[in-house]
Amino acid sequence: MIETQTATAFNSVQLTPQDADIVRGREIHAAEQNIERALTSFFVPAIITALLFYRDWGIVALVWGVSVITTCTIRGFFARCTTQRPPAPMPARSIRPLIAWSVVNAIVLTSFPAWVTLNANGFSLAYMIALYIGTFWSASFAQAPVFPTAVLFMLTQFSLTAAFAALLGLNWERTALLALYASGVAAALHIVRQHSALFRESVVQKLDLERKTETIGLLLKEHENQSSDWLWQTAATLHIVEPSPRFAEAIDLGEQALTRKTIVEILADRTVEGNAEVLAQVEDKLARRRSFRDIAIPLSVASQTVWFSISGRPLYDRKNRFAGYRGVMADITEARLAQARAAHLAHHDALTDLPNRAKFGILLRRSLARGRSFALLSIDLDGFKAVNDGFGHATGDAMLVEIARRLQEGIDSKDVVARLGDDEFVVQTWRLEMASVETLCRQLIEAASQPMFAGNEPVVVGASIGVAFAPADGATSADILNSADAALYRAKNDGRGTFRFFSPAMDRKLQVRQRLVQGLRTALARDEMILHYQPVIDAKSGAITGCEALLRWQHSERGMISPAEFIPAAEESGLIVPIGNWVIEHACHVATSWHKERRISVNVSPMQFSNGNLHGHINSVLKKTGLAPNRLEIEVTETVLVKDPHVALDTLRRIRALGVRVALDDFGTGYSSLSYLRLFPFDRIKIDRSFVQDLGQRQDSQVIVHAIVDIAAGLGMTITAEGIETTEQATYLRQIGCHEFQGFLFARPAPANQLVGVKEEALADGATDQAPPVSTLLT
After folding, report:
1. Interior CA angle at 139 toward 136 and 144, to 5°?
2. Is 691 left (phi over 0), alpha (psi -120 to 50) or beta?
3. Mutual orientation of helices 17-52 and 2-12 as an angle, nearest 10°?
4. Which of 118, 178, 347, 623 lies 20 to 30 Å (CA to CA) from residue 60?
């Protein structure tokens, strides 16, 4: 059963049977190494316990102590036999002896402490519990690489204790002790299983890396076989005889000089690291007259380190007397450099040469395992995507290389900066004082924000940083990275170009946002998205000219969720594209039941423009619903034009070519560049509600609104004022020439079947016709 569970665990990572045997062999080898060390630590406690409890338990304590020492000695001998050999593939049945030994060790180590624990009190009880717990955890963790053996050790220990308790009679104290022990065993099983899984994952990753390295080595070996090499031969004194020109050229010595040297003298170069160790192997083979093959040795030739592969076999004359050596040498410098480069690339980013995610994960786990404290900075570049899309990937790559250089220059010598992907960087710093970390964050943000050049054009990106401290904010690499990311998310939400330190509240907020995004993914399928409609009123006649479709989320559990909460999450997650497409289709479908002269206005996100097929979707919806193109109006904000003006303008022209109207929403806020009004002839401009609401209190708002109306009128564009809440606002806007009104004064947004009539008194001043009820939109 346990072997089946082990096989299932291997299948979960999709290993071949051969690879499963290799991984199992390495797990057993690691477990045996742990056990060999752990068993030696049981000797001293066994001797002390036997002597300490001899007075009360007599020969029983001595027999137990001798049994522990004997069992540990025998088990250690078998473990040493395994660990003295390199790891080898092992079949599933190989764990059976380990399982048997695990059960035996558990019985021997546990029997006496368990019995005393259930019978003693005071110091004896405390001592035995400490010994019991120490034995439990040390043995469990030592056997963790082979999870079934750890499981059986814990279960055997618990079963033996439970059996003793039942034999002695269960009272409330023993029952409580067993219950606590059972909960501890359950927790230990979970923890040990995690460690076992992590170890197996590291073994599989290492095996995969070895396979890749082996593949690279085979390719390099094939190239080497096709390249030139040379023969060498020595006399019985090991002096070179008849050296080839290729040999002399490779060693950078004349042929005469080579004949005066032995092969050992030629290969000896104490100034090169690693030469002495390899030369010792060659000398040993030569001294014992043994053949050798493909021994790689480094030498210094022409002030450069080169690698040679040397193979040789001894020669004997007709009288079987040693006559020297003959062999082959080859220059494998390029192959060695390529292997080193491949190994480097496996753990470094190809673009910036910084440690990559895999390498940085190793560094984090190593630091955490050693119990070292450090600060982790999660860095995300602000505005990089726009630069990368606008100037091209070559410019984006050059910026990433420059940012990497600046980050490296800004950290301390022992700190580490890594690139996790795209524009995500991390820094591990050993600064622990809050003020010092703050200074580092400001320096890095300032360094990243310095201008760079795309050709002759200056380009600026920023940086936001989230900071977490280990181990306080995370005891594992995943936890500390998540904490730093949560702080980074807060920094970006607080305006970017800043830094924030992690707090548990951030983690909760991030979890709330993740749940919100998860809910958005299925909101359309669950029919939770609905549209409300707010009428747009003709300022003079009071007639309804159309409605603006406004998205609402009726959550099944939370009720109505504000658009201010879920729209940003939809934008950041990219879900705004399918949701926005649904809004266009649903609004057009509803509008087909209205009076034909009334339009439907739909807000479009900048991300829908980036998607590249907005006009195609609109065209498809118009054909599907049968709505006249001039009855659909797309509302965009200036943000669409700022992020990528060329793409946005091209999309707007294609939409206009379909006959669809285009409105500029929230005019007067954001960038408010008048050049946009020249670049594209909008059908309508909507004055932002912030100016409308301040008309009665601020003179500057009146001046701005009046200027917008004059500009739009001069360009032949319709002007709509939104956010009107008082009759005074409506009267003023009508007097300066505003064409359309929208706001709570007239009607609040509501579902199509729940729209109420427009307030007639709001239009009484200056209206030439009585306003019809909004419900007539649907008749």
Report:
1. 115
2. alpha
3. 130
4. 178
Average pLDDT of the residues of the chain: 82
Segment holding 536, helix H or strand E: strand 529-538
Phi, then psi, of 153 in degrees rounded to 5: -60, -50
Segment 238-281, tens digit of pLDDT:
999 988 888 888 888 888 888 889 999 999 988 888 899 999 99
Give helix then strand counts, H and E, for the chain. Answer: 29, 20
Contacts of 122 (CB under 8 A, 6+ apart): none
**Which backbone phi and psi does 429 adopt, to 5 degrees?**
-120, 150
Beta bridge pairs of residue 544: 537
Distance of CA 648 to the CA centre of its chain: 32
pLDDT mean over 361-373: 91
Q: What is the pLDDT of residues 207-244, one digit of tens each?
A: 888 777 766 655 544 544 455 578 899 999 999 998 88
Question: φ, ψ for residue 721 (rounded to 5)?
Answer: -100, 125
Q: In what order do the strands lie in the sheet with 499-501?
A: 416-421, 424-429, 374-382, 462-470, 499-501
- The tokens describing 457, both together, are 């054009």
Give the orientation angle of helix 477-493 with respect to helix 357-369, to 10 degrees: 120
Cis upstream peptide for 471 (omega within 30°): yes
Q: Which two tokens stand for residue 22?
A: 């290799």
- Let me know: does 706 contact 736? Beta carbons within 8 Å: yes
∠ CA 347-348-351, rounded to 5°: 155
d(CA 468, CA 485) in angstroms, rounded, equals 9
In angstroms, the CA 734 to CA 538 distance is 10
- What contacts 49, CB < 8 A, 6 or more positions away? 61, 64, 65, 112, 113, 127, 131
- Are residues 452 and 381 in contact, defined by beta-carbon separation less than 8 angstroms? no
Per residue, what are the HEC states of 719-733? EEEECCCCHHHHHHH
Do 491 and 498 contact (CB within 8 A), yes or no?
yes
* 453 CB-side CA count, 13 A: 3
Locate 740 and state its tokens.
């359309």
Angle in degrees, 0-180, between the axes of helices 95-119 and 172-226, rounded to the nearest 10: 150
Type of residue at 11: N
Beta strands in 127-271 (DSSP E): 230-233
Residue 622 in tokens:
């118009």
- Cis amide prior to 245 (ω within 30 degrees): no
335 and 223 Cβ atoms separated by less than 8 Å: yes
Residues 6+ apart with CB under 8 A from 321: 236
pLDDT-derived band at 515, boundaries 50, 70, 90: confident
* Distance of alpha carbon 527 from the chain centroid: 33
Q: Which residues, in sequence order, are bridge partners of residue 635?
A: 603, 663
Query: How far apart are the C-alpha atoms of 94 and 7, rounded to whole Å?
Result: 13
Under 8 Å between Cβ of 415 and 428: yes
468, β-bridge pairs? 376
Is 114 a residue whose pLDDT tops 60?
yes
In 3D, which of 358, 422, 360, 438 has the Cα closest to residue 388? 422
Q: How confident is the model at residue 644 (pLDDT cuts 50, 70, 90)?
A: low
What backbone phi and psi angles, to 5 degrees, belong to 191?
-65, -45
Q: Which residues, other chains included, contact 308 with Cβ-Cβ below 8 Å and sequence gap of 6+?
A: 250, 267, 296, 297, 299, 329, 330, 331, 332
Q: Which percentage of the chain shows pLDDT scores above 90?
A: 27
The sign one gets for the Cα dihedral 472, 473, 475, 480 is: negative
Residue 314 pairs in a beta bridge with: 325
Q: Are 639 and 605 in contact (CB under 8 A)?
A: no
What backbone torsions phi and psi does residue 229 show, to the nearest 5 degrees?
-140, -170
Q: Provide the pairing of β-strand 544-555 with 529-538.
A: antiparallel
- Highest averaged pLDDT of the listed ranges 130-134, 219-223, 231-235, 505-509: 231-235
Res. 505: pLDDT tops 80 = no
Identify the residue whose tokens are 């500029």: 664
DSSP-derived 3-state class of residue 219? helix
